[in-house]
Amino acid sequence: MSKLKIIYNKEYDIQRVLNTIKKLDWYIDNKYNINNISFPKILDREKLKDYSEDEINRAVTEEFSDYLYKENEKFLLDNWNIVSKEIELAFSKCNLTSQDEYRVYLTRYGMGGSYDFPDTVIINLSNSSKISMLKTIIHEIIHLAIQKYVDEYKIGQGQKERIVDLFFVKNFPRRVFTQNVYMSINTEKIDQTFDENFPNMENIIKKISE
């Protein structure tokens, strides 16, 4: 069963804001709703690229709440055993591998969730309940598990997100979690390929790339 290492600190939040600002154009190009991206409230969203690192540092420092992070850390650790077992069961059906340990960064900024291969998940607490936080972690861990195939067969961002959603619905029906970031693409082929080839995730991704 996988373990969680939960990390949060002011320095990480500062870097998260800086990195998110640098990535704004990418989010726009990939059809993300940038209104769902959270920043320190004191910052003017229309002038994000104009702020210095010192100004962002002060904005994050003003909002930093150690209590908020500790509260969510406790919830995650209290519920992780059940979630980890669900993930292992789902992955075992599909020949996917979970990590021995996942590093989970808690923050209040950026998108709702993201990941860094091979073992890191980032969760934004600003717009999520504790229950949806668990769903987001599962979603990002699915991403981590299929990333090697995504890289090998070079599928697009929207295709990747749709595959993760289909996997989620198939294996975690009581925790249903889907997105709309791929709605600008035709998902018919993706859905059909997934249904015809599940549980062979490599074959699904390979055929979608063709």
Account of the 3D structure:
It is a single chain. The chain is α/β, with parallel strands linked by helices and 210 residues long. The chain has one domain. 56% of the residues lie in helices and 10% in strands. It is built from eight helices and four strands, in the order βααααβββαααα. Strands 1-2-4-3 form a four-stranded mixed β-sheet, sandwiched between helices. Strand 3 and strand 4 (120-124) form a beta hairpin. The longest helix is centred in the middle third of the chain and has 29 residues, at 66-94. The chain is globular. It starts with a strand and ends with a helix. The relative contact order is 0.13. The model has no long low-confidence stretch (mean pLDDT 92).
